[in-house]
Amino acid sequence: AQSVTQLDSHVSVSEGTPVLLRCNYSSSYSPSLFWYVQHPNKGLQLLLKYTSAATLVKGINGFEAEFKKSETSFHLTKPSAHMSDAAEYFCVVTLTGGFKTIFGAGTRLFVKA
Amino acid sequence: GAVVSQHPSWVICKSGTSVKIECRSLDFQATTMFWYRQFPKKSLMLMATSNEGSKATYEQGVEKDKFLINHASLTLSTLTVTSAHPEDSSFYICSARKEGSKTQYFGPGTRLLVL
User: Fold this and answer.
1) SS3 category, A61
2) Nearest chain A Cα to B49, which residue?
3) CB–CB of B107 and A99 under 8 A?
4) pLDDT per position in chain B (115 positions), as tens?
5) Are A37 and A89 in contact (CB under 8 A)?
6) CA contacts within 13 A on the Cβ side of A82
7) Chain B contact for A36 (CB, 8 A cutoff)
8) Which of B4, B102, B106 sits opposite A32 (nearest CB)?
9) Which chain B residues are Cβ-neighbours of A106 within 8 angstroms?
10) Contacts of A49 in chain B (CB under 8 A)
11) Distances (CA, A) of A99 to A86, A104, B99
12) Nearest to B97 by CA among A87, A40, A92, A16
């Protein structure tokens, strides 16, 4: 069965420190992987995506993620957190073929001044 | 590019009335659009997948007669909540996808409150 697990329901960091949001997936097929960010009462904004090209993907706002097939992971990182990064982050997997999309439960990122 | 809009951004209605929400892809043609519902502090729940010119495919447990979806053009899909009840109050989000692409672009969401 296909699934997406975001390992932390919430993460708290201080401004200026690194951010790590973890995502593991389970899929029998070659997936496409996405990270989206959602600010309160807003829609989802695409941060970055992996679609079988380079395994290290750079996105907007300084975020990047690395696809590790051996670990079935797609963790999101940022070297230095900013207050404006405080939001909900979703890891999303889309399967090849039927394009079925699976959402993670989300990780709330808190950034302390 | 790849901007998706929703209208209205929020709506308050009386119980028993119907509400229509529009989802538009502004700068691309969307062969497929998706409608999601999001409860507070929860992830998105897919309600239905809409392909232009054909009937929507509803997820298990979603009443198709309650949530009417129309995808009449490559840039517009509508969700109509019929005979709304307070339990239909929620945040509804649409997304759109280009043909052959796996990337979904999301609208800003519509907050529905049924009194």
Assistant:
1) helix
2) A100
3) no
4) 789 999 999 999 999 999 999 999 999 999 899 999 998 888 899 999 998 888 899 999 999 999 999 988 999 999 999 999 999 999 999 999 988 888 999 999 999 999 9
5) yes
6) 5
7) yes
8) B102
9) 42-43
10) 102-103
11) 30, 16, 11
12) A92
Tokens of B67: 């949530």
Cβ atoms < 10 Å from Cβ of B23: 28
Give the gap in angstroms from C-alpha B48 to the nearest C-alpha of chain A: 12
Instruction: Count residue pairs from A and B with Cβ separation < 8 A.
Output: 45
Torsion, Cα of A92, B57, B75, B46 (10° steps): -30
Minimal C-alpha gap between B17 and chain A (Å): 24
Token pair recorded at residue B33 = 């659009």
pLDDT tens, residue by residue, A51-100: 877 889 999 999 999 999 899 999 999 999 999 999 999 999 987 766 67
H-type helices in chain A, by residue range?
none
Give the per-residue pLDDT at A98: 60
A42 and chain B in contact, CB less than 8 A: yes
What span, in angstroms and rounded, lies between the C-alpha atoms of B87 and B115?
10
Per residue in B18-31, pLDDT tens? 999 999 999 999 98
Judging contacts by C-beta atoms under 8 Å, the chain B residues touching residue A10 are: none
